[in-house]
Amino acid sequence: MPLVTSKEMFEKAYQGGYAIGAFNVNNMEIVQGITEAAKDLNAPLILQVSKGARAYANHTYLIHLVQAAVEETELPIVLHLDHGDSYELCKSCIDGGFTSVMIDASSKPFAENIEITKQVVAYAHDHGVVVEAELGTLAGVEDEVKVNAEDSSYTRPEEVEEFVTKTGCDSLAIAIGTSHGAYKFKPGTKPQLRFDILEEVSKRLPGFPIVLHGSSSVPQEYVKMVNENGGNMPGAIGVPEDQLRKAASMAVCKINIDSDLRLAMTGTIRKYFNDHPADFDPRQYLKPARENIKKLVAHKIVDVLGCDGKA
Q1: This model's pTM is above 0.90
Q2: Do residues 68 and 99 lie in contact, with contact meaning Cβ atoms separated by under 8 Å?
Q3: Is the pLDDT of residue 148 over 90?
Q4: Among 142, 212, 220, 229, which residue's beta carbon has the most beta carbons within 10 A?
Q5: Cβ atoms within 10 A of the Cβ of 187, count?
């Protein structure tokens, strides 16, 4: 089975009241952990690559890792560019075999966001590739995406119809209270997504797939594992999983998860080094790290996304 676009995936997810997991990848072990979990659960999958991951691992290596995953699992898999920041980057990924790209011009004025997105959509659609765009700006840090809290903004529902109509984008990332990174909410506050915005957007765009970025839940077991083994992550708090499940039952068809994977891998490796100080073979510590990523992803697929058995 070749790589696919997300078009049919999202149609089924919208009708079925579930979401597809979009997991960020940048090395072999992460790809394997994610795809092995998805294969066991017969779940559709989006593997996404950020600009930073592409610079780190090299486009060619990543393409072949994902193609290997398709061969091994025989699952429908989308290869998606996460947070493309320019037409040129999106074009390079389209030309290089990606089946989906995100153009993130959300920090630009509304009219400029439309023009940049429209340009990417025209090239992508000519090449059979789908496009995700963004309205509203998420706070937080992820790779090269850095937005201060005071510069973040919720999506304005009154803008979505004009934006989607004028750009022709295939899905839309909105800002309803999620944020990038592991420090999404302050300790002592009650994390709460703005479901009123999501509901209003879905009324204005019936049947249209919505995307949530910055949706890691920051599992406290892995935060604890990091901190107990030499790390320093006080006050790391993510999005409650029950709120993500609710969003998946509504118009949200794609939920992005990255920080949770990093925590699972790093926490496991830190603990392994503490428990086995004499070991130095990378396979010794990467194997349990891969296994914990697989365990984490399986949990997300079943308990958060609800897409098990939907491939």
Answers
A1: yes
A2: no
A3: no
A4: 212
A5: 9
Burial class (CB in 10 A: 0-12, 13-18, 19+), 112: exposed
Q: Detail the DSSP E strand segments found in the chain.
A: 20-24, 45-50, 77-84, 100-103, 130-135, 140-142, 145-147, 171-174, 210-212, 252-257
Predicted confidence band at 238 (pLDDT cuts at 50, 70, 90)? confident
Which residues touch 58 (CB under 8 Å, ≥6 apart)? none
Closest by CA to 251, choosing from 311, 204, 199, 301, is 199
Distance CA(183)–CA(233), nearest Å, equals 9
What average pLDDT does this structure show over 211-234?
93
Model confidence at 207, pLDDT cuts 50, 70, 90, reads: very high
For residue 81, what are the β-bridge partners? 49, 101
Bridge-partner residues for 101, per DSSP? 81, 131
Tokens of 78: 């989308």
Would you state the structure tokens that stand for residue 110, as one six-digit string? 């509304």
Q: What is the DSSP string of 110-148?
A: HHHHHHHHHHHHHHHHHTT-EEEEEESB--EEETTEEE-
Please give the backbone phi and psi of residue 106, each rounded to the nearest 5 degrees, phi first: -65, -20
Listed range (78-92, 126-140, 178-192) with the worst mean pLDDT = 178-192
d(CA 296, CA 38): 11
* Count of residues in the chain: 311
Tokens of 179: 């944020």
pLDDT at residue 152 greater than cutoff 60: no
Residue 287 has pLDDT above 90, yes or no: yes
Q: Are 255 and 19 in contact (CB under 8 A)?
A: yes
Report how far Cα 182 is from the mean position of its chain's Cα atoms: 14
Q: Which residues contact 4 (CB under 8 A, 6 or more apart)?
A: 76, 77, 78, 99
Instruction: Indicate which residues carry an active-site annotation.
Output: 82
Confidence of residue 236 (pLDDT cuts 50, 70, 90): confident
CA distance 273 to 221: 17
How far is the C-alpha of 46 from the C-alpha of 30, rounded, in Å? Answer: 13
> In sequence order, what are the beta bridge partners of 210?
172, 252
